[in-house]
Automatic annotation (TrEMBL):
Keywords: Catecholamine biosynthesis, Decarboxylase, Lyase, Pyridoxal phosphate. PROSITE patterns: DDC_GAD_HDC_YDC (PS00392). The modification N6-(pyridoxal phosphate)lysine is found at residue 303. Pathway: Catecholamine biosynthesis; dopamine biosynthesis; dopamine from L-tyrosine: step 2/2. GO terms for cellular component: cytoplasm. This is Aromatic-L-amino-acid decarboxylase. Its cofactor is pyridoxal 5'-phosphate. Coiled coil: none annotated. Its EC number is 4.1.1.28. It comes from Mionectes macconnelli (McConnell's flycatcher). Transmembrane segments: none annotated. Pfam families: Pyridoxal_deC.
Length: 482
């Protein structure tokens, strides 16, 4: 494919993507395929001779689309928002076209410098304390990770390195292995599984801190666990606080937890993967109060800020804590501007894409006000669904609805609610996923799509309500027969 054909085919692909997104509500939100569906649709091995673009293009609908779950459908209410917008897609095209591998300043100065500035822009939008920003001479700064899982892992590894060095300076008789064996990380019992995975990769113990009736961790619960572990000779070193837990979007109490972590020399990382985008709205910024006590903070613009995956924003107060854990500089990576920024020291992989272009395009073309309205619209729609649920005495709301997520269920057994979810997803008119809150099987209704409107929420509720009616009738008949 030469440049001339690329121009032609590129325009065709843009038209295809635009049509796909404009008409996505006509597609069934969840596919009708079984595992292994794709293999019979393609050849056993790669072709020896080149194929035409037309042949490849026509197979998109034949091979790919039948197996796509349409995350951007207005009938997709599962998991979390996977934000996308036309400015972000255009920026990703430019990113792919430039094709730099921006591991250092010299590898592509614009890649490093734009990312530094964009993370300062984003930090200012959520009113992060100044010490988290790079500015022109700050000690902190932001970086784009691939996911919140990476941000948690990087934070934990940096905390581990910092703690080992501190303990060795205080107790030189202890070996690194002895210290490692006594390190303990902590997170809420509602925290995302990626926190446990980070501890697994980091080869340290992790313990869960029990959450309260609102599914939040408070200071007294953390202090109790810390006191017990210190008495047993363990070394607490890392706590991951969650703002917007995956099951029900609950918020740990930072103003209680932060001072404890600071006093105990524990690195506090804040995972606000989903909820963090809402902090650009002044009415939700109070949920971030206490961030001033944190050592690192993360949220995902690729969830709710109209920036397509992957773009996970992470900030640290002292970037040297991060760099000190990962810095290796072989000769082939050295250059004359070493101190101008090497993001490879802030992350797990060496290479990185020019992801800040997406932020630059979206923040400029939507503006803060446009993004605020996007968040507020989703929150309004979640309260619309909450109101509909509360109007039906057969259902109950299982957690406070703060942002765009509603946790609800039929009053009754877990098996009844499992059957309801199965009937919802089997019908494939909308798509939901569940969670467990304590011992209850709960349905999650997340406002996700950029194009979702009040009519889609109303349709979803009417559909759920009718399926519930049919299900309860069947269950009642079966009960009488038994």
């Amino acid at each position: 494919m030469d440049a001339a054909e690329f121009r032609k085919r590129g325009k065709e692909m843009v038209d295809y993507v635009a049509d796909y997104l404009e008409k996505i509500d006509r597609r069934q939100v969840f596919p009708d395929v079984e595992p292994g569906y794709l293999r019979p649709l393609v050849a056993d091995c790669a072709p020896q001779e080149p194929e035409s673009f037309e042949d490849v293009f026509k197979d998109i609908e034949k091979v790919i689309m039948p197996g796509v779950t349409h995350w951007h459908s207005p009938y997709f209410f599962a998991y979390f928002p996977a934000a996308s917008s036309f400015p972000a897609l255009l920026a990703d095209m430019l990113c792919g076209g430039i094709g730099c591998v921006g591991f250092s300043w010299a590898a592509s100065p614009a890649c490093t410098e734009l990312e530094t500035v964009m993370l300062d822009w984003l930090g200012k939008m959520i009113n992060l304390p100044q010490e988290f920003l790079a500015g022109t001479d700050g000690q902190g700064g932001g970086v784009i990770q691939g996911s919140a899982s990476e941000a948690t892992l990087v934070s934990l590894l940096a905390a581990r390195t910092k703690t080992i060095r501190r303990v060795q300076s205080e107790k030189p008789e202890l070996t690194e292995a002895e210290i490692m064996g006594r390190l303990v990380a902590y997170a809420s019992d509602q925290a995302h599984s990626s926190v446990e995975r980070a501890a697994l990769i980091g080869a340290v113990k992790i313990k869960t801190v029990p959450s309260d009736d609102t599914f939040s961790v408070c200071g007294s619960a953390l202090k109790k666990v810390l006191d017990e572990d210190k008495a047993a000779g363990l070394i607490p070193f890392f706590f991951c606080a969650t703002l917007g837990t995956t099951p029900c979007c609950s918020f740990d109490k930072l103003l209680e937890l932060g001072p404890i972590c600071n006093k105990e020399n524990i690195w506090m990382h804040i995972d606000a993967a989903y909820a963090g985008s809402a902090f650009i709205c002044p009415e939700f910024r109070h949920l971030l109060n206490g961030v001033e006590f944190a050592d690192s903070f993360n949220f995902n613009p690729h969830k709710w800020l109209l920036v397509n995956f992957d773009c996970s924003a992470m900030w640290v107060k002292k970037r040297l804590d991060l760099i000190g854990a990962f810095k290796l500089e072989p000769l082939y990576l050295q250059h004359h501007h070493q101190e101008s920024g090497n993001f490879t020291h802030w992350q797990i992989p060496l290479g990185r894409r020019f992801r800040s272009l997406k932020l630059w395009f979206v923040l400029r073309m939507y503006g803060v006000k446009g993004l605020q309205e996007h968040i507020r619209k989703h929150v309004r729609l979640s309260h619309q669904f909450e109101h509909l649920v509360l109007q039906d005495e057969r259902f109950e709301i299982c957690a406070e609805v703060v942002l765009g997520l509603v946790c609800f269920r039929l009053k009754g057994s877990n098996k009844l609610n499992e059957a309801l979810l199965e009937s919802i997803n089997k019908a494939k008119k909308i798509h939901l996923v569940p969670c467990h809150l304590r011992e209850k099987f709960v349905l999650r209704f997340a406002i996700c799509s950029r194009t979702v409107e009040s009519t889609h929420v109303e349709f979803a509720w009417q559909h759920i309500s009718q399926l519930a009616t049919d299900l309860l009738k069947t269950w009642e008949q079966n009960h009488h027969q038994q």
